[in-house]
Amino acid sequence: MEQPCVRVPRESGEATRRALAADDLVDRGREIVVEDGWLYLPVVDAAAVPDDYEVVDREVPRRERQRSPEDVLGWRPTYERLGDVVLLDEDDPDRAREAADAIVAADLPVRTVLNRASEVRGDLRVREWDVLVTDAAPPPEPDLAPTEAIHREYGHEFLLDVTEVYFSPRLATERHRVVEQAAPGERAFDMFAGVGPFAIPLAARGAEVVAVDLNERAVDYLRENARRNGVAERVTALRGDVRDVAADYPGWADRIVMNLPHSADAFLDTAVALAGDDCTLHYYDIQHEDDPFGPGERAIRAAAGDAYDVDVENEQVVRSYAPHELNVCLDVRLVR
After folding, report:
1. Which residue range(s) make up the domain with 276?
2. Is the pLDDT assigned to residue 210 strictly greater than 70?
């Protein structure tokens, strides 16, 4: 049976494999084939492969199942991956150490293993990490720090240091859902932009984007990521409090992203001031499961007052946040 494969020159094979693996596109149940100077990398979903890769169909042999950390340990550790950096969430230090060793021993592309040492803290939304493993593999780029990762998501790449910025790979599907609604020529304002996981794909869709964050390092990475993804000319990255920055953009936005779910309601007056005559607002919130959308809708209507008609176009449950609490998004259209 033929299998979709990405075909690349042999010398580009490892870099391509890393890129596809970071987006979980590599079919680990099939062998990589080398033939006539070409590498054929089997993929699980041809439609999800970025357009700059060539996809062909060909026969590739099955491979023996790869070892997972669970195979090594006999129990399943809690972790997620950002490129070749693995993030553990284990409370017990001995258990975390055991899990880190198993992750390195398993068939995962891994360079660094970290374990969460604190919750997200402060206005900059960063957390502390215990570094358990470094240099388990060569970095994908020279001079990459042990805690820096190159994360790939829906054809875009994001450089970040998990010890300096906030980033959640778990929200990839939700970010893609929002970005797919944008149209070329829109003016989009990302009020809490981080390293650019909303801003950069929006710019790639053809939007003009203003992206703001309090964290100076996040803005540095945002600018670098805009350059990496070829959208620097459409992204204005600004460091500061969005309430101050917004004074320069009254009535400017066709689309506003408010991904600060614990306290976005405190910034709704700013969002209304930014909104143009017809603006879509993506408002993120965390609320009890008994009424996950009501508090956000009431807050938006109160902020809009008589200046806008408010239409809640979509209510989206993003994920479970805590027992009986949901992380949600309201897609709201404001028409002056």
Report:
1. 166-335
2. yes
Least confident range from 15-29, 140-154, 241-255: namely 15-29
Say if CB 26 and CB 108 are below 8 A apart: no
Number of domains in the chain: 3
Mean pLDDT of 251-264: 96
**Chain position carrying tokens 């149209």:** 183
- Tell me the H-state helices in the chain: 13-22, 69-73, 93-105, 172-179, 199-204, 216-228, 242-245, 268-274, 294-304
> What is the band of 65 on the pLDDT scale with cuts at 50, 70, 90?
low
CATH number at residue 283: 3.40.50.150
CA gap 112, 145 in Å, rounded: 10
Residue 261 has pLDDT above 70, yes or no: yes
C-alpha span between 166 and 126 (Å, rounded): 5
> What residues contact 30, with CB distance under 8 A and at least 6 apart?
3, 42, 60, 61, 62, 63
Q: What is the 3 state secondary structure string of 165-221?
A: CCCCHHHHHHHHHHHCCCCCCCEEEECCCCCCCCHHHHHHCCCEEEEEECCHHHHHH
The answer on 54 and 73 residing in a single domain is no
Q: What is the pLDDT of residues 301-327, one digit of tens each?
A: 999 999 999 999 999 999 999 999 999
Contact 50, 155 (CB under 8 A): yes
Nearest to 43 by CA among 152, 12, 32: 32
Is residue 181 located within the same domain as residue 37? Answer: no
Helices H, strands E: what count in the chain? 9, 17
Rounded to two decimals, the pTM is 0.80
pLDDT of residue 22: 78
Please give the pLDDT value at position 122: 82
- The dihedrals phi and psi of 261, each to the nearest 5 degrees, come to -65, -25
